[in-house]
Design a protein that fits this description.
The structure is a single chain. This protein is about 50% helix and about 20% strand. The chain has about 140 residues and is α+β, with helices and mostly antiparallel strands. It has one domain: Pathogenesis-related Protein p14a (3-Layer(aba) Sandwich), CATH 3.40.33. Strands 1-3-4-2 form a 4-stranded mixed beta sheet. Strand 3 and strand 4 form a beta hairpin. Helix 2 packs parallel to helix 4. It is globular. The N and C termini lie far apart (about 75 Å).
């Protein structure tokens, strides 16, 4: 004969265990957009530099943000630094530690090839991606169309 107390205890233990499993489920991945801190600041700093050179500001494009973010995450996962193929101009950067958007954009401006992408008069849109890991460092990607 099974007592009601024993059955209730088994049920309660099962419910607690199930609740624990549910709470351990991973949350959905963050969808980056033009308002995210790193993206917004890369866009702002890039446009400030363009405007200081007499060029128009670039619009932030969600598709370019998503593509840039995916590439930054890929580079970090691979531990590699290489340009993607596509019909766009691209700036990429890697730093061994945690940095801010200001340092990344400053490095791009100091590099003639990266600066040329930033100052491209044919570009009207941009997006950026940012991926940081304690052991992998910081990967930044900027794309222009």
């Amino acid at each position: 004969m099974i007592s009601i107390r024993y059955s209730a205890g088994v049920f309660l233990a099962g419910a607690v265990a199930a609740a624990g499993v549910v709470s351990l489920a991973p949350s959905p991945a963050h969808a980056f957009n033009c308002a995210d801190y790193h993206v917004a600041n890369i866009v702002r700093l890039t446009n400030e530099y363009r405007e200081s050179k007499g060029l128009e500001a670039l619009g932030c494009d969600q598709r370019l943000v998503e593509d840039s973010q995916a590439w930054a995450d890929f580079l970090r996962a691979q531990g590699d630094l290489e340009h993607a193929e596509g019909d766009f101009a691209e700036n990429i950067a890697w730093f061994g530690g945690e940095v801010g958007p200001e340092q990344v954009v400053d490095e791009w401006i100091e590099s003639p090839a990266h600066r040329a992408n930033i100052l491209d008069e044919g570009a009207s849109l941009m997006g950026a991606g940012w991926s940081h890991g304690e052991s992998e460092g910081t990967y930044a990607v900027q794309r222009f169309e």
